[in-house]
C-alpha cells in the first residue's frame, strides 16, 4: 500500500503552539491517574465477563524461587515497558503518512518523565488524529483478545497503563479537532504547532473543550476525595474516638467510604460513590467553565460591535 502523500501547505499562519505548561502537566497527571483507575476497572470487568473467572494479577510462574514480591515487581515493569510499543505505534503511523519518526525521553518541568515519538513531517488534521490514537486503539485491540485467550489477567495492568498514559494524546486530539479540517499540524518534542489560514480559529464552545473540562474536574475531585479519605479521614476519626463509620450503602453506587477501628488495627475502604461524586463535580466544573466562555465570547463580540460602530 502506498502511503498518502504529505499535505500541501496552503498557509503557514501559526494558529497555536501547544506546549506542556505547568498547569497542563498537572491536569494531565490528574486525568491520567483517573484514566488508569477507570481503565483498570473496565479491562478487569472485560476479563471476568469473557473468561468467566475472577481476575488474578499473579504471573502464575511455578518456580521455587518466585514469590509475590517478584510478581509485583514484574507487573510494575510491564506497566512501564508498555511505553515502548506505545511510542513504536506512534512511529508506525508517522511512517505511514510519509514522516520519519524520532524517539526520545524527557522530564516535564523537572518532575514528570515522558517518552515521545516525533517527526519533522507536517500532517493534515485528520492524519494527525490517527497518529495520536494509534497506540490506544492498537494496543487495546491486540491486548484484550490476548488476555482473554491466554487467561493472563496480569495484562490488565499494562493495558490500563497504556490507556492512562494516552491522556496527552487524547488532550491533543480534542484540541486539534476544535480547528477546521483543512489545518495542518507539526509535531515537536514538547508539543504541536497548528497552522492554517489567518481566519482559522478554534470553536469557542467545542465539544472537546467541554469533555476535557469534565475530565479535569472529575479527576481533581476524585483524587481529592481519595486523599481526604485515605489520609485525613482515618487520622481525624481515630482522634475523635470513632470506632466505626460508613458513608452510603455497601454494594450500591452510593457507597462512599467505610472506616473501622479496633484496639489493634485501623481499616478503611472506598466505594463507587467516590467516582460518582467525582463525575458530578466534573460536570459542574465543565458547566461553570462553559458559562464563563459564553460570557467572554459575548463580551468580545460586543466590544467588536462597539469598535465597528465607532
From TrEMBL:
Keywords: Membrane, Transmembrane, Transmembrane helix. The chain crosses the membrane at residues 28-50, 65-84, 128-148, 154-174, 225-247, 267-288. It holds the Pfam family DUF3267. InterPro entries: DUF3267 (IPR021683). The keyword Disulfide bond does not apply. This is DUF3267 domain-containing protein.
